[in-house]
Amino acid sequence: MNKTKQALATMISSFEWFSSESAAVYYTFLNDLPDDVTAQAIKELIKTSDKAPSIAMIRRKAEALMDTAKGVKKVNSSERWTEYLKAVKHRKGWGIQPHFKDRAMEIAAESVPADEIGRATNDKLPILRSQFIKAYEEAAKNQSEEESNMKAIRSVKQTQKLTGGFYGALP
After folding, report:
1. Model's pTM, two decimal places?
2. pLDDT digits (tens, 9 = 90+) for 119-141
3. Alpha-carbon distance 136 to 103, whole Å?
4. Helix/strand number for the chain, H first, E second
5. Residue 21 CB coordination number (10 Å)
6. In this structure, how many other beta carbons lie within 10 angstroms of the beta carbon of residue 30?
């Protein structure tokens, strides 16, 4: 038995409503993640939850564990605002908008033009910050959903290849 199945078996004994059938459904939606990481995510969530964690919670925890192992640091929207202000400060003149590799950052920067920050009074700056953060969070959410959708589409296409197209058709 692999580690994910063992961790799901622990959930069966830990949570009253969680059954073998539930474990089978969970496994179906978790088996694309690395076994060790998924098992660890389940164990961590069992330690801190009064209720059985959802599939989504387990996936988020597993992805967070993998990011931490890879040294990936999640940057929050306030940190992005600070980064944008530094870029505006160091730009080479008026009318020049800083550009960023991160698509969400680029969209947020377009929502609050650099020149507008340069002309802003102290009472206007919190409004611009709020506008930037809202745009950044929305763009980051959309970017994350697009990435998730692309993974799902690749998974369906792979399943179609393996099953000779009997799984369902994509446009």
Report:
1. 0.55
2. 888 888 889 899 989 988 888 88
3. 9
4. 8, 0
5. 9
6. 21
